[in-house]
Amino acid sequence: MKFNNDILAVVQGTVDGQGATTLTNANFITVSDAI
């Protein structure tokens, strides 16, 4: 499994006002690359 810059940007963008990172399944739909 690889993480690309696009998904990292999405993950970084989900930090809430208290600094907690909230992740959902939608954040990871395009994470996996074909082997």
Low-confidence stretches: none
Class inferred from helices and paired strands: mainly alpha
Give the mean pLDDT: 57
Q: Could you spell the SSE succession in H and E letters? A: H
* Largest sheet: number of strands, sense, barrel closure: none
Rounded to an integer in angstroms, the radius of gyration calculated over CA atoms is: 11 Å
- Shape verdict: elongated
End-to-end gap: 8 Å
Explain the layout of strands and helices:
Blueprint lengths: L4 H8 L23
Structural summary, described in words:
With 35 residues, the chain is mainly α. The protein has one domain. It has one helix and no strands. It has one helix at 5-12. The model has no long low-confidence stretch (mean pLDDT 57).
Short descriptors:
single chain, 35 residues, mainly alpha, 1 helix, elongated
Characterize this entry briefly.
The chain is mainly alpha-helical and 35 residues long.
